[in-house]
Amino acid sequence: MRSVAGFLASLAIAFPVVPLMAQSGGLNLPKNIEAGSTFSIPTAGSGNAVLYIAGPAEVLKRDVQLGQPVAIAAGDLDNAGHYVVVLSSPSSAETGELDVVPANKPAAISFIAKPSRLPVGLQNGITAAVYVFDSYRNLIITPTPVSFQLSVASAATETRTVTTRQGAAWTAINSATKEGSAKFLAQAGDVSATRIIQQVPGDPCGLKMSARKVGDKIQLETDPLRDCSGNAVTDGTIVTFTESWNGEQTTVDVPLKHGVAEAEVPAYNGARLSVATGVVMGNEIRWEGRE
Amino acid sequence: MIRPLVVLFSMLVASGAFAADQGSVQVEPTTLQGPRPLAKQTASAVIRDYLDAWQSLGEAMNQNRADLLNQDFVGVAKEKFAATIDQQSKLGIHAHYQERSHDIKIIFYSPEGLSIQLVDNIEYDVQLLDHEKVVATQPVHTRYVAVLTPTEVRWKVRVLQAEPL
To answer: What's the whole-model pTM score?
Structure first.
């Protein structure tokens, strides 16, 4: 059976901190300081002590002379966070806490815009998220206005302003009606970041073909293909011509070239000719020997 | 073997409270800003990985081993905490963080699904040791903002920053 003294000794080993529990409230600390700013901590008494300012984001240790204020220089404590402050002398340990808050001036933006390529005229087709940071890479928690601008040559710039919540802001924006590269800019204060969004024509609108006899063949040709906003459909888009005659079907896939697609099929009187691209159907022609 | 654990975790998250090595953990109902819906499985994974990150942070700070951050942290958070560990090593000190409670709420899921933000009202004890001598122990109650991003197999903490209550 252990003695009482032994039991107390084992407690002291298990909880060595108890006798050293800090005397809270002894330190006169600012509640909040801005990241990177200068401040001082007054001390009382005489003799030597050690000051600790410790948090997961940063740690400082200073030898101090009690009775003299401890100066924390600009840039010494620049990571936002919650810090425990301990003034440890041979006879006592005083503790306190302080918060380092981000500087209010934005210095960097983390900006993600998606997708990088999409059809024109898509409602809320482009989404973006930003996080705003100060010059010490602290997330600026206070509400900060962020301006989003989507601009494409010879079209009006679309602008949205969103205020951050807990450092984050997002928006959804329509793609422009004009094809081409769009500049998507996010700006907070004096800092901005730009992403390029490629806006491509949408599905063809009003696919129409004509047919004429060339020798013993029928030459099929589409009108120039445009989307519903009037943008020329991208060359290389596959157009499918189909000829149905006497229970048989002939299909020709051709890529769009210079805005039109052309194909030749055998000339059969009574053949039905049709055209399509993707899910868009065009007109149909019944071949009666000439068109 | 893994399946029952996953089910258990889902039930715990759904119920909003559970106990773990991190002390008590409360998960508040999600009120998201942003258009992207948050699946229950995603929320569970984010909470699990966030709590794991605190465990790693505590061990890394206690042992002054920045490599322990690799599994759960990326980017700014990892760089800042690694720098703190480097400072601690040079000064001969280390810090022991003992979590007592978390009260977590997911507040933002970015539209493209590449980041999730949460806030955590947390209570923990910090024990500061200088050359293995305990300098002080301080109970702390504060609020953290975290941003997590998906990696190959888990969500990693990119920003972890306390703000005044």
So the answer is: 0.80
